[in-house]
Amino acid sequence: MSQTVSIITPAYKAQSTLTTTVRSVIEQTHADWQHWIVADDGFDYGTFLHEQGLNDPRQVFLTSGGVGRGASVTRNVALEKIDTPFAAILDADDRLKPGKLEQAVDKLDRHGIVTTALDVMSEDFRHLRHVGAGPDRVLSPGEHKWVSLSMDAMVVWDRRRGDGRFDPEMSNMTDLEFLLQLYSSNPQSYHLGTPLHDYIKRDGSMSNARDVTAGMIASKREIINRLEAGRYGLSEADVAGLIGFLNISIMAEAAYGAATTLQPGLLFEDHIEPMLSAPAS
Fold first, then answer.
1. What integer pLDDT is reported at residue 202 of this predicted model?
2. Strand partners of residue 62
3. Out of 52-61, 213-222, 226-235, 272-281, which region has the weakest mean confidence (pLDDT)?
4. Ramachandran class of 40: left when φ > 0, alpha when ψ lies in -120 to 50, beta otherwise
5. CA pair distance 226, 233, nearest whole angstrom
6. Are 84 and 163 in contact (CB under 8 A)?
7. pLDDT at 203
8. Which residues face 268 on adjacent strands?
9. Measured in Å, how far apart are the chain's first and last C-alpha atoms?
10. The 3-state secondary structure of the chain, one letter per residue
11. What is this structure's pTM?
12. Cα Dmax for the chain
């Protein structure tokens, strides 16, 4: 039975980062993959990788059909075309640890969704912290965000058990919204507590620009509205768990600017984590 994983990477002005991302795919211990690299800037990444000595017959190159259409539209271009049983998301500045696909595919034999802990790094690949590290475990949708408290692009899923599309109308939180679509047909996920995905914190993502904060809060409120409307068909307990997390996260967003003034360079994860463990008032 095929165990091919389609890895979807949207690329927008990614020349300075994509080589590291591609190398992490080529070095996977699970070699049955296709790497779908979708240009959102009109650039010829196939020729570029050939010039860097990183071309591989398992790579597939597409275009979003425009310039700057956004990661959601760009990812969806690949999602409309892939025909492999498994899929994964990998942004053009992140990396996979060598064993990520092998460990994820092993768990996909019994689970439709696999997530992994993250190794959060600076742009020069300096370790900042881990997110979601701990024991391997089965998680319900309502438990997921309390373990993986930020970023959800580390997902690997079985397309035969559930699939979705990214929402181009949402400015932020599209990875979580996509994951909720997968949860609509998968009552549980399996979380690998070993950090197997390098998530790179760009300078812009570590700031608290007003438009970024407003977009994050608006997107989180939109997901709450969709949960309350029964959009994903989740149980009451799962909806309550997700909304509980998102309400705390909205409060954390609102307070993050002041917190970074007092502590420059404060990671949002370090900011929100104490709020999640605080007793309810």
1. 78
2. 38
3. 272-281
4. alpha
5. 10
6. no
7. 66
8. none
9. 52
10. CCCCEEEEEEECCCCCCHHHHHHHHHCCCCCCEEEEEEECCCCCHHHHHHHCCCCCCCEEEEECCCCCCCHHHHHHHHHCCCCCCEEEECCCCCEECCCHHHHHHHHCCCCCEEEEEEEEECCCCCEEEEECCCCCEEECHHHHHHHCCCCCCCCEEECCCCCCCCCCCCCCCHHHHHHHHHHCCCCCEEEEEEEEEEEECCHHHHCCCHHHHHHHHHHHHHHHHHHHCCCCCCCHHHHHHHHHHHHHHHHHHHHHHHHHHHCCCCCHHHHHHHHHHCCCC
11. 0.95
12. 59
Residue whose pair of structure tokens reads 């310039």 in the numeric block: 67
Joined together, the tokens standing for residue 6 give: 């389609």
Length of the chain: 281
* pLDDT tens sequence across 158-187: 999 999 999 999 999 999 999 999 999 999
CA proximity to 120, closest of 88, 93, 157: 93
